[in-house]
């Protein structure tokens, strides 16, 4: 009998530390599958941000570097420049990338650093307990925006793919969602493309994955998927914003 | 032997080059030397000054309250650093740009028309080399040959350039005058 | 000099000859780093250390290494962390305000047990302070260079030659102890030029990072490395902290550096480091010329502090110590007083904010303290 589905070797045996229903698990698995398929497990360096993504250090069966909060693209820059043959990817949440690490992501992108950013956007600070993120939707409640995000006071959700698309250097910028199998497969293709471009030395590649946070959104996982389709994906349209291969 | 010198002037007068060249030449001649530049926050047009120490022994304090020699490239620098020369020390004036007003009587005053001589030689840029010539003549801190070796190494070996620097150095040595 | 050396390594002089050169402190430190095997530098402009990144931008590519101008001090030190995490010997440099921003990254390096060298070319503080030279960061460097209670070896040169030698040494210590090392210079050492001889070029240093940091967390990982200062499990964090504490004690045994100058008969002992110690050396000559028997203890390692040097002073002979620094209020005072357990009076002398400290001021301070003690 042929084995058609197994745990990727790029994942450790440990059970996922993410909350039940959280799509971090899907994102982590997609990356691990690709590292297996592309035979990069022993050549990969995962640069993990501060946030729920840090838990990846329990899961990625690859070399892992944990970055100070927001500096993830700077750490990935140092690692990739010092070891150009490695497949380096940063794994960052929206607080890390779009708030405290805004300078680092903009400048790494602008320098055209040859690594891949996996950007998990779930429009909240998950690990610290559901505070307002730069990506929180207008009206969406957060523990630091109990009445919901009020744009008069806190502005609007920051759209990182669109912002980064203003720069000349990035080679691949795309946004996918992890809400359903069809979109998950598209996301996997996008990450494969980004990793492939990096290994070909093309330059900066950026993959945003719309995700959820059942714990802090306060809804069951399945309801989260509907909410994402009805709200998140309307503010953050899916698509490929830049494809340097074309 | 230890000599402490302050060189001061406008930015652009080659103040730092004077200090650095004295340091290079001393280092090359096997002595100890220390060059310390002092800048204001302006990138252009401010005042510039530097300290140089030339010594046969180990150099301690990079800057002392008093120096042996002040090289003043312009009037404001003369006035600013007048009080920092030790009694019995030397003030070397660029008399093309400043005038001695006799504010101190316990120092020796020497003059060199650095800018005028530089023009005479053919390049206003060598005024600082003229001043170096005047200084080594007055102080005996370095020989003409020691100075020329450093100038050749650091400021260029192109024959016409070297010749002009050689002439500037020699003229500075010859034309410096001590006021009575 | 070794033959493998890139000829452009020599800013002046000729290849193959150990010859004296007249070098600026900042550039000499940068060259010393490359000679020590450093192959990665990231920095950000700030006075008075700009010649270090400028020099590195010219030299590092020629030496086969990486130069990066980061978007901030914070990013620069994190680039260094990234390079170190894949086993490359790396350096960053800055001055006070920038070192504050680097605190996060330095703490991360220490927490993740990674080597790197950080050069602080000090200016007057606090805040943005003055851009002129000062010694305003002793406490920051020796007590808490970042959050979390870690320590680093802090080396303080007082000449350009010593800046070269200590920078060269710093890389070895960083790798040996898997911990960042700080070279703490003042802006004067950075901008002055002096005759120096450069050390021999070492091969580029890379180190294995296998088994470092928190590999513990990845029990099922095969042949992989987890470099992190984020440990999540309190017992393991405590274990690492206890080990770090043992390392700091080891430094006190093995890594103390200090110069004793004319101490044999000294009744008045100046304690000074860096440029202040140079002014003190001249002052001591002048004091001895007046029949005043002065001497000096010059800490070269500020952490570990030369406690034993101070402890073994003859308390029946030494009438007082003079803590002499280019910062006010002076910052070494507590360390000096602890070392002598208040058995010898400690006076202080200094200038601050970038104002020049001269030998004459030190002479006057010693004479004033003698008068005070006589009362």
Automatic annotation (TrEMBL), chain A:
Instruction: Cite the Thiamine pyrophosphate enzyme TPP-binding domain residue spans from the record.
Output: 58-208
Q: Does the keyword Oxidoreductase apply?
A: yes
Query: Which keywords fit this entry according to its UniProt record?
Result: Oxidoreductase
InterPro entries linked to this entry: 2-oxoacid:Fd_oxidoreductase, THDP-binding, TPP_enzyme_TPP-bd
Biological-process GO terms, alphabetical: cellular respiration
Q: What class of enzyme is it?
A: oxidoreductase
Q: What is its EC number?
A: 1.2.7.3
Q: Does the keyword Cell inner membrane apply?
A: no
Q: Which Gene3D superfamilies match?
A: 3.40.50.970
Q: Which Pfam families match?
A: TPP_enzyme_C (PF02775)
Name one molecular function that GO assigns to this entry. thiamine pyrophosphate binding
Protein known as: 2-oxoglutarate oxidoreductase subunit KorB
Q: Which organism is it from?
A: bioreactor metagenome
Organism classification: unclassified sequences, metagenomes, ecological metagenomes
Automatic annotation (TrEMBL), chain B:
Entry keyword annotation includes Oxidoreductase: yes
Q: Which residues form the Pyruvate/ketoisovalerate oxidoreductase catalytic domain?
A: 11-174
The UniProt keywords, alphabetically, are: Oxidoreductase
* Gene Ontology molecular function: phenylglyoxylate dehydrogenase (acylating) activity
EC class of the enzyme, as a word: oxidoreductase
Keyword Oxidoreductase appears in the UniProt entry: yes
Q: What is its EC number?
A: 1.2.1.58
Transmembrane intervals? none
Q: Which PANTHER family match?
A: 2-OXOGLUTARATE SYNTHASE SUBUNIT KORC (PTHR42730)
Question: What is the name of this protein?
Answer: NADH-dependent phenylglyoxylate dehydrogenase subunit gamma
Which species does the entry assign this protein to?
bioreactor metagenome
Q: Which gene encodes it?
A: padE_6
